[in-house]
Design a protein that fits this description.
The protein has about 375 residues and is of the alpha/beta class. Helices cover about 35% and strands about 20% of the residues. The chain contains 13 helices and 15 strands. It has a six-stranded antiparallel β-sheet, with helices on both faces. Strands 7-6-5-8-9 form a five-stranded parallel β-sheet, with helices on both faces. Strands 1-2-3-4 form a four-stranded antiparallel β-sheet, with helices on one face. The N and C termini lie far apart (about 75 Å). It binds iron/sulfur cluster. Iron/sulfur cluster binds next to helix 6.
Length: about 375
């Protein structure tokens, strides 16, 4: 006989649920609480930060089958940046989303959305945040992608680590329903960290999770999340919340805008947005800029682009490696060489020597006087 998904045997007074065999009273509790006709399946958006880690853990504890998805936009590659710079060598070089999935013991799907995501960055309907971060449109886009994913695979709902009032634009209470409507997910979106502050969703109504086991976090304080992390024994998680996205960084955003201005169009390729994170970017003229390594690790990284960009290597003194981005003529190359000299150990020498290399590998030697401090206007530095 079967009642609400629980099969029971009068003879043994035992009840078999999807989660195991229980005595009479326990089985009824399990059946009422979880409606175990089936094990619900959820997809969690895993950014690699603490909030999505906790939100997923809360739902896993309810017995739901959870898999994770991490959308790769190209703007959130923290471990990669840490691997380049010497000063960041002590910081973890891991992929935080993979680390989170490993902590939780769930499967993680990494989905490349670099090309599709461009439209979100170029034309955010709800505008940008403090910098070039189109957070509300980004959330809508990612939840829409997650909705398509669950619909294709027969999953029941989506989990995010959003907290009411945590971010000025995308996580305001008024923004929460916008994400639901515009992504088309409606009430198949559960925010376990703030669920008690929000209307019940499908997961609560179907009994897949218990509302009283969800949380009522709100506001900008991180203390409740940190307490919950300590409760679960999670340490060494990424800080701060969702902080890997370069679009929230002021100096990165300035460089991105400069790139668009210089190209006369809102466009970028993955290499462009990677390079914006590395080196000093100096634009002495609208049609070209010089990217000067700030240290050896950056020089090694930039030299990997020698086949895509012309480059300069100082041969007479210690000094940084540099790339040139733009259509340059001989005068531009000479000016770039003088700029690079300014950052070399030969900055006070009358002349420095450099090797200029084209993208096809032809080289020529240059001998130039480094720029002096007053020859280099501050506004060249992007
Ligand atoms: S911080 Fe970046 S990844 Fe996060 S919502 Fe905003 S734009 Fe999207």
């Amino acid at each position: 006989m079967k009642i609400r998904g629980v099969r029971y045997s009068l003879k043994a007074r035992e009840y078999t649920t999807a989660a195991g065999v229980y005595p009479y009273n326990v089985a009824l509790f399990v059946a009422n609480a979880h409606q175990m006709d089936k094990q619900a399946k959820a997809l969690a958006l895993i950014s690699g930060g603490l909030d999505s880690l906790l939100a997923t853990k809360v739902v896993l504890d309810e017995g739901v089958h959870v898999e994770g998805v991490n959308f790769f936009t190209g703007f959130c590659v923290e471990g990669h940046t840490h691997a380049i710079r010497k000063k960041d060598r002590e910081r973890p070089k891991r992929n935080n989303a993979l680390w989170v999935a490993e902590q939780l013991g769930i499967k993680l799907h990494i989905v490349d959305i670099v090309d599709e995501y461009k439209d979100v960055v170029f034309n955010p309907r709800h505008g940008y945040g403090a910098n070039m971060n189109p957070c509300l449109d980004c959330k809508i886009f990612m939840v829409r992608k997650a909705r398509e994913w669950i619909e294709q695979r027969g999953f029941d709902f989506v989990i995010t680590g959003e907290v009411v009032g945590q971010r000025p634009k995308s996580q305001r209470k008024q923004s929460m329903p916008i994400v639901q409507h515009e992504s088309g997910i409606e009430d198949r979106l559960l925010r376990p960290l703030s669920a008690q502050n929000l209307p019940p969703t499908l997961a609560e109504r179907e009994g897949w999770i218990r509302r009283e086991r969800m949380h009522g976090f709100s506001g900008r304080s991180r203390k409740p999340q940190m307490a919950l992390a300590a409760h679960y024994g999670f340490a060494d998680y990424a800080q701060p919340a969702g902080g890997c996205c370069f679009l929230t960084d002021e100096s990165y955003s300035v460089k991105l805008r400069d790139l668009w201005d210089a190209r006369g169009a809102r466009q970028y390729e993955l290499d462009d947005i990677m390079l914006l994170k590395v080196g000093r970017h100096i634009r002495p003229a609208p049609h070209f800029k010089v990217i000067v390594a700030r240290e050896e690790g950056e020089g090694n990284f930039l030299s990997g682009y020698r086949k895509q960009y012309p480059s300069l290597t100082i041969t007479s003194h210690g000094g940084p490696f540099a790339l040139l981005d733009g259509a340059v003529d001989d005068d531009d190359v000479a000016l770039a060489a003088r700029i690079v000299g300014r950052y070399s150990q030969g900055r006070d020498a009358p002349f420095i020597e450099l090797e200029y290399r084209t993208t096809t590998g032809e080289t020529r030697l240059l001998r130039v006087p480094p720029l002096t401090a007053d020859q280099m206007p501050a506004d060249w530095l992007i």
